[in-house]
């Protein structure tokens, strides 16, 4: 156990013990183990997923030795799935390793039930037709699907899940929820204990900035008909007037820096608004714990919260005496606990209404939910079949005209190469002798595709079309490592239910080292 | 046609190296010579055999590079195993560079990886001169700055102020932290060097000592008190070693006691390690993405087989995934990579006075102690060896303007034992500067 914690120390600091447990119980299936599939799996095996199964019918060829690190020379001519499986196992003995020497396409036809055993399937280097079939099976069996494709110096990653709820989205810019604009009674009575004009300079410069801001705002309101300052500048002037410059007061510096949060307290984000308005929050006996808690959250906000979600209870460091700060911290924590209790009450009532009293939701789960209430997210992915039949031509046409980068063109072309393969039984540019013909064949297929989507008349940059033919469906190791790396990163987000996965089709351009997420 | 169908080992890479393209680098000439030169002639140095380094070695070997050197002073730790995939549990304690080199050579036949188990400063500057491209997989700003000054030191400028192409040593640099990272390409003299864009690296958070000593408020404050203050008081004469478990346990115990005293909870052993060692969270996927981006750019520099990325690639994986390049500009007065840092000198100034002026200049603070000065390859004044010092000493009393052939401006090369490379100073002569100086000196 100690060794496990040491081994995973650097990632436990990101997704915590519960995130790691989620990984360790995950069963992952990878379809095709070229460099893209192998690299995606490598990162997951290092991170410590529960088990993996590789599905691939091919044998190790000379070309594999030039672009895949997870095959060795001794395996030349033998099963690629077997070789990759064995070399991955070496990376982490605690991960279960299996392989099936069969083509994914054949397995989809012969044994669709095979996929039900997995938490998540990563489909690499697969074309449109089998992907449609795979998606149908995965959705039916509630298995998460991540699609990854490396194609020369281009790549694509796409997630397909019916619904993915995220409590710990951990956004980069966390908003401080301090309620300085409307202190609750316990906080107010602590604030009242302070005389911020005290002549004791040492006390004056050790009053936490939260107290200063509440006091100064209060004084302003008294002399301005109960209104807050009209803008931050005026408020900052009022703060500056109370500081003692000669004392070099850090608490006042902090107050000035945070002055805006009194006038502009955190609002309800559009993502949270969407969660609250989601139909799934009208719960019944079949609802998940997540939606029951959302429903309870709505009731909390309509009642005890007075429009606000529960307080998360965390406060930033503030320049102050230890005991001032610790007391303030305890007041915030107590309020957060009280909010959890209120939400817990709503949860219990809802469970009773829907006849689920027998399986309550643990307080620890409700607490985590409340702590992250402002950052809840729900991800619903469009079906591939809808994407492929959508009338997104006009939108693509607009993007093709606007986007200086070639991402929209790459998106169209990556789909066109599959149509090419379906028509000619091979990818464009695989034969040196037919490059020119392939360029015009690919171009007319791509234009036809755009037409079918309602984007007639859009033009594709010639340079990009001919580059796609130049790539000849080659799988370049570095590109595979990037695309596989991104796929594995998205798998970790999906499995741990932390952070926000890609919402749309991720297009990677290795020529310029840039990416774009398309919603078509 | 059969020939093009035969699966050769480098078939996928050959699509890029044998075929002409439209979106390629300047002067791209496809042909079998490209792969041959990657395999036989080009020498690449990878600095760091950690999270990025392991990935870089794999990526470069599978991009056709045949001769790679790797330098790292560290040994393998258990906490490396969640991402540094070339290492196994039984390798713990062994030098990273040596194990990494051996593993890659074992797996990728034909590649030679030469390990160097030492600090980067231990190598002679000429060691770095031998490589065509240097790729950095480092986690410290200091090490990056050091290598930057080495390659900027190789840079020479033509008479017209344009960089001498043959002296440009490309640097490719990657960095990661959790779900975020960056990759960038530096052509000294052409694109911004490290020093031009130090602002890209946020300053490290440190706590004021008075907070630690008098008003601790967080677990980190208690830990840093034990680490920075209490250790020196209670264990005088013992130097603290973050890798010694007994030392770490002591810090943890003291921090917990201090926490109890101040009513601060939440101090854990893991947090103690994190604060004391300044641990940066790290995962396999981000390292793989950033390293492969660096290796691909290295391949592009070596072969021109595709367009290069623009200066600096930023990667964010927390909310969706973003990879975007950010163009930014060179600092025209950069002390590392510019054709010369501008310095105004009075027309009557002697070489001795000029040296004194340099030592007082805040831009060169801590960078100069005993500067030697040369002009167009002539030594104007040399601090060492004694023979040269004696020979050049008479110049100190001569006017700098005369020493620089009476030209109104010119570039001087300054060497100093504190500098890794050379400092180029662009001198412009002005009349009456001295008296202005005297006035301000008098007034202050
Ligand atoms: Zn510079």
From TrEMBL, chain A:
InterPro entries: APP-BP1, ThiF/MoeB/HesA, ThiF_NAD_FAD-bd, Ubiquitin-activating_enz. It comes from the Eukaryota. One of its GO terms (biological process) is protein neddylation. The keyword Nucleotide-binding does not apply. Pathway: Protein modification; protein neddylation. Gene3D superfamilies: NAD(P)-binding Rossmann-like Domain (3.40.50.720). Residues 8-509 form the THIF-type NAD/FAD binding fold domain. It holds the Pfam family ThiF. GO terms for molecular function: NEDD8 activating enzyme activity. Keywords: Ubl conjugation pathway. Transmembrane segments: none annotated. One of its GO terms (cellular component) is cytoplasm. Regulatory subunit of the dimeric E1 enzyme. E1 activates RUB1/NEDD8 by first adenylating its C-terminal glycine residue with ATP, thereafter linking this residue to the side chain of the catalytic cysteine, yielding a RUB1-ECR1 thioester and free AMP. E1 finally transfers RUB1 to the catalytic cysteine of RCE1. Belongs to the ubiquitin-activating E1 family. ULA1 subfamily. This is NEDD8-activating enzyme E1 regulatory subunit. It comes from Ceratodon purpureus.
UniProtKB/TrEMBL annotation, chain B:
GO terms for molecular function: ATP binding; NEDD8 activating enzyme activity. It catalyses: ATP + [NEDD8 protein] + [E1 NEDD8-activating enzyme]-L-cysteine = AMP + diphosphate + [E1 NEDD8-activating enzyme]-S-[NEDD8 protein]-yl-L-cysteine. The active site is at 210 (glycyl thioester intermediate). GO terms for cellular component: cytoplasm; nucleus. One of its GO terms (biological process) is protein neddylation. Its EC number is 6.2.1.64. Residues 343-430 form the E2 binding domain. InterPro entries: E2-binding, ThiF/MoeB/HesA, ThiF_NAD_FAD-bd, Ub_act_enz_dom_a_sf, Uba3_N, Ubiquitin-activating_enz, UBQ-activ_enz_E1_Cys_AS. Keywords: ATP-binding, Ligase, Nucleotide-binding, Ubl conjugation pathway. Pathway: Protein modification; protein neddylation. It holds the Pfam family ThiF. Catalytic subunit of the dimeric E1 enzyme, which activates NEDD8. Belongs to the ubiquitin-activating E1 family. UBA3 subfamily. This is NEDD8-activating enzyme E1 catalytic subunit.
